[in-house]
Amino acid sequence: MVLKKYFAYALLLCCLASPAEAAGIQLLDSDPGLAGAIWYPCAGEPKDVPLGKLAVPPDDIWLTGAKDCPVTGAKLPLVIFSHGRGGWFVANHDTAEALADAGFVVAAINHPGDNGNDSSQRDKMSVWASRPADMVRLLDFMLHDWKDKVVIDPARIGFFGFSLGGYTGLVLVGAHADFRRFALICKETDKTENCERARSGDVPPSPPHDPRIRAAVLADAAMNFAFTPEALSGIQVPLQIWRSELGGNGVDARFTALTASQLPGQPEIHTIPAGHYAFLAPCSPLLATRIPRICTDVPAGFDRAAFHHDFDASVVRFFREHLVSDGGTR
């Protein structure tokens, strides 16, 4: 996808066919490293929420919710979101809204250097190492610096990741990434920076884990080449794994199936008869017209909106079981 389309994607993805019902929204726009939004339960009336400088002028882009309304509840579970390559913090906002309506706090940010408005690090190995650190920083902010931090139960932390965000989640919950393995998918004639670094061993160390995360939902995780079965063996938290039968956009369905089969424990695994983009929030008519590539599902006839109704409900159910029903313990 060319950069121009990534800009359009970032501008339009938030326009859903079905709005949120009761999610409160606070925008994070004072720090480029923490640019995004927080969704949470509240009793306010949902309205259109313009994104201001988080959107690219002159487009009039908004979310739907009760902006800056008081948080309802106490000792609430928190789920942090990680978007895919070139995405942005609203990529799965329907899921974030469903969780907020169900009593969760949700926080999502743009990954610096790899989002719809900033591609400066998108194709560099450094972003593979920085993404998990971005999520650690977000979690630190939510627990220590967010103005409403007192409502969060630090023993009830979850993670949601799509595509490269799924890779990010695997690392955070205990997997060890070996970036030298990137050489396995490089052709001998490929002299690009990442291939040369992988061959020489000049790669970043495996990014940090975060033991505060107690459960994770990962959808069509990318970068499966970075993990061996041994590298995945350190994962000890409950996982809900979603994968597409058809893959796409650099995600090979054969490798997502292999990784899912190598995960320790008994992860909850779901396979859908569609392609990679089916996990993105349903497209508005405007987005479908502007960027049909990410809105046209395969096979023809796959109903993304109907799927997300079930997908969001399954994500909510999973996090309720593992972050609420068991009291937040492992």
TrEMBL record:
InterPro entries: AB_hydrolase_1, AB_hydrolase_fold, FrsA_esterase, UCP031982_abhydr
Any GO molecular function: hydrolase activity
Domain AB hydrolase-1: 77-193
Matching Pfam families: Abhydrolase_1
Keyword Metal-binding: no
Keywords of the record: Hydrolase, Signal
Annotated signal sequence range: 1-22
Family: Belongs to the AB hydrolase superfamily. FUS2 hydrolase family.
PANTHER family: DIENELACTONE HYDROLASE DOMAIN-CONTAINING PROTEIN-RELATED (PTHR22946)
Protein's name according to its UniProt entry: Predicted dienelactone hydrolase
